Amino acid sequence: MKAVKLTVMVGCVLFLTLSAGADEMPWFDMENCAFCKHIGAEEGLFEHMHTEYHSISNGILSVTVVDASHKEAYDRAMKAMEKVGTEMQETGVMPKMCGFCMTYGGFLMTGVKNEYVGSEFADIIIWTSDKPEMVEKLQAFGKRANDEMAKLRAAAE
Predict the structure, then answer these.
(1) Of 92, 121, 148, 157, whose CB has the highest number of CB atoms within 10 Å?
(2) Cβ-based neighbours of 16, under 8 Å, separated by 6 or more
């Protein structure tokens, strides 16, 4: 179910838009991005939600761990993001997004395979491609996401 949530969340973003605009906007925007603002709106969630990306031979995997004290807030934020994605599909209107969400959605539109693995302890998404150029883009995305998250966390402290 969460795989559907994550896919719907940004599934309608056009790849050309991501290529043109992702570098011209903040990478993460917890206040103005139609998706990320739902994380920012849940008090303390950002501080209790930890995501990291790791390169694998044919793509990346992401691991998100949420402290038990904020699991309900995380679920609310994910549900709100799913709603944004559903509205995008229904109306065709693309809301304001940060560079991360634009890029994330672009991958979904280019045929990158993603597989959700849920556990009691973490949400894991495995992103893969059989195209070497796309694997390179996925791995660059994962590295940038890790780097930008470190900057965001440092600025929050």
Answers:
(1) 148
(2) none
CA–CA separation, 131 and 98 (whole Å): 26
- Count CA atoms closer than 13 A to 32's CA, side-chain side: 9
In this predicted structure, the answer to whether residue 107 has a pLDDT above a threshold of 50 is: yes
48-85: pLDDT as tens digits: 999 999 999 999 999 999 999 999 999 999 999 999 98
pLDDT tops 90 at residue 11: no
Query: 145: which 2 tokens?
Result: 């996401």
Residues 37, 33: Cα–Cα separation, whole Å: 6
Quickly count: other Cβ atoms within 10 Å of residue 99's Cβ: 21
For the chain, the domains span 2-156
Element (H, E) at 141: helix 132-156
Question: Percentage of the chain surpassing pLDDT 90?
Answer: 71
CB neighbour burial string for 46-57, b if at least 16 within 10 angstroms, e if fewer: bebbeeebeeee
Contact 65, 121 (CB under 8 A): yes
